[in-house]
From TrEMBL:
Protein name, entry field: COBRA-like protein
Family in the record: Belongs to the COBRA family.
Domain COBRA C-terminal, chain residue ranges per copy: 223-412
Alphabetic keyword roster: Glycoprotein, GPI-anchor, Lipoprotein, Membrane, Signal
One GO CC term on file: plasma membrane
GO annotation, biological process: cellulose microfibril organization; plant-type cell wall cellulose biosynthetic process
The species this protein was found in: Herrania umbratica
């Protein structure tokens, strides 16, 4: 192997073996306590030997999306059901249909696995709200793209009058990490007809909710936070070994030294390969306190991709900071405030602007992938201070994963004597604001 590879050992794997139970942050996210993916089976029609069902997968996670290569939904039939036809999705295997002499079922698997069609699917294979290549947007970012539906005709129930819900639902989205509850009877889904003047009711509705746990996903930490301020030249870098440690000995992953190109994909398996750093994270979020104005203050937020093998499309970053209780303007990202569920510190969600910076590109020999924005925050004169690291974030998430924060005792300190901390003039602020508005509208 080339000398520029140094071996790393995943800190996560080491700590996983030590901690055998879920910690709070692994199993439950206090910033999105109701987050889940709900799978609904609506039976809309009985057939000669079964039923027709419409299945909807709805992502209720505020800031966790289902990325390329998309969701895969599986279950086990309670009886001898088969799927005669399917539209809007497909079963990945047909299974053993040899006992069907005249008609060919779509799938005879006891435990079928369903995948989404791509947007270029033929009209005869489509159904309403289908065919997004398995991608589901986060609920807070684009509710209209946060769900996906398909239809299937289920048969071969024989003389069994008791239609039973599928068992053991599984969801890959796209990797592991989701655990689905029982598929249970609920109130039938109501839909509207004749322009909303008539209500239709499903014959029967089954639901299951699936929740994510990074512990179940066996997910190594993916990101860390670094900090800097205008009032101190000290840069607080990401905690060492945030996502793994750089080590010389034989181990699991690889990293590439700066200035070297990524190896050919076939020379190693397609695992992630990152730039060698002390933190070894594929993604870092840098929070720089830029300016202190009379009525506002400004932060520069930069998200960097150290991964040579991965573009993060439709990335999102969540930041928890008390300053977001006031109106905040992000110049180059889209943003929204999220409910803070009783926390005193407000939560803001940022994501890229389409066709501009919603792809966080992979690193290469010459540079990291990066997206950044300036954020203008209004001052609340009762709480605003530069003391004690107040202006620094409390918590940062990238794509729903909690980022490793530096310890407070390493934060950049306010120097003694504050002569250089007088707020800048408002006119200057206004000029900067206008410049950025122009830049953004020109894009
Ligand atoms: C799933 O999320 C929806 C929307 O937030 C919520 O109404 C529902 O109660 C959640 N389901 C469970 C089982 O938590
Ligand atoms: C397929 O199913 C038929 C009928 O149920 C059975 O006889 C046959 O052994 C099965 N074939 C395989 C390869 O399992
Ligand atoms: C699309 O529909 C055609 C005809 O109904 C069928 O033969 C084909 O297998 C379907 N393709 C997919 C991907 O479901
Ligand atoms: C469903 O899962 C449970 C527990 O994992 C298992 O005991 C049971 O056999 C499974 N049922 C079917 C029909 O696969
Ligand atoms: C990332 O996207 C760029 C531009 O679309 C493309 O050239 C590059 O090959 C992609 N990288 C990976 C690792 O997919
Ligand atoms: C926040 O500021 C923007 C632009 O200055 C304005 O359009 C919006 O109405 C403000 N929102 C609130 C809640 O004050
Ligand atoms: C910001 O997000 C909203 C909601 O997804 C969308 O309607 C709007 O077009 C986005 N704005 C930009 C500039 O991308
Ligand atoms: C600031 O003052 C504290 C005590 O008042 C002192 O310990 C510290 O060294 C001073 N720091 C600087 C940078 O002068």
């Amino acid at each position: 192997m080339e000398p520029f590879f140094s071996r790393v050992r995943s800190l996560a794997l080491m700590s996983m073996s030590l901690i055998s139970v879920c910690t709070l942050s692994d199993c439950y996210d206090p910033l999105d306590p109701n987050g889940n993916i709900t799978v609904t089976f609506d039976i809309n029609q009985w057939t000669r030997d079964g039923y027709e069902a419409r299945v909807t997968i709805q992502n209720y996670y505020h800031y966790r999306h289902v990325d390329k290569s998309g969701w895969k939904l599986g279950w086990t039939w309670a009886n001898n059901e088969i799927i005669w036809t399917m539209s809007g999705a497909f079963a990945t295997t047909q299974g053993n249909c040899s006992s069907f002499k005249f008609d060919t079922p779509h799938s005879c698997e006891k435990s079928p696995v369903i995948a989404d069609l791509t947007p270029d699917a033929l009209p005869e294979n489509r159904t309403a709200d289908c065919c997004h290549g398995g991608i589901l947007a986060a609920w807070a970012i684009d509710p209209s793209m946060s769900f996906s539906s398909f239809e299937m005709m289920v048969g071969h129930l024989g003389a069994n009058p008791n239609v039973q819900a599928p068992l053991n639902l599984t969801l890959m989205a796209p990797g592991p990490g989701y655990t689905c509850g029982l598929v249970a009877d609920t109130d039938p889904t109501i839909s509207s007809d004749i322009g909303g003047r008539r209500q239709l009711q499903a014959y029967r509705t089954w639901k299951s909710t699936c929740t994510y746990s990074s512990f179940v996903a066996n997910q190594a930490p993916v990101c860390c936070v670094s900090l800097s301020t205008f009032y101190n030249s000290k840069i607080t870098s990401c905690p060492t070994c945030s996502c793994g440690c750089r080590e010389a000995e034989e181990s699991t992953g690889s990293c590439i030294r700066e200035g070297y190109p990524a190896p050919q994909s076939d020379s190693l398996d397609s695992d992630d390969i990152v730039l060698c750093t002390d933190h070894m994270c594929p993604v870092t979020v840098h929070w720089h306190v830029m300016k202190n104005y009379v009525t506002h203050w400004k932060v520069k937020l930069t998200v960097s991709n150290y991964n040579y093998r991965r573009n993060y499309s439709n990335w999102n970053v969540l930041a928890q900071h008390p300053g977001f209780s006031q109106n905040a303007t992000a110049f180059s990202f889209n943003s929204t405030m999220l409910p803070s569920f009783g926390f005193s510190d407000e939560v803001a969600l940022f994501w890229g602007i389409d066709y501009y910076n919603n792809d966080l590109l992979n690193a290469d020999k010459d540079q990291l992938g990066a997206v950044s924005t300036q954020i203008l925050l209004k001052k609340d004169s009762n709480s605003f201070t530069l003391k004690n690291g107040w202006a620094l974030p409390r918590r940062i998430y990238f794509n729903g994963e909690n980022c490793q924060m530096p310890l407070p005792d390493t934060f950049p300190m306010l120097p003694n004597g504050s002569s250089n901390l007088k707020p800048a003039h408002t006119l200057l602020l206004f000029l900067i604001y206008l410049t950025f508005k122009t830049v953004v509208t020109r894009l």
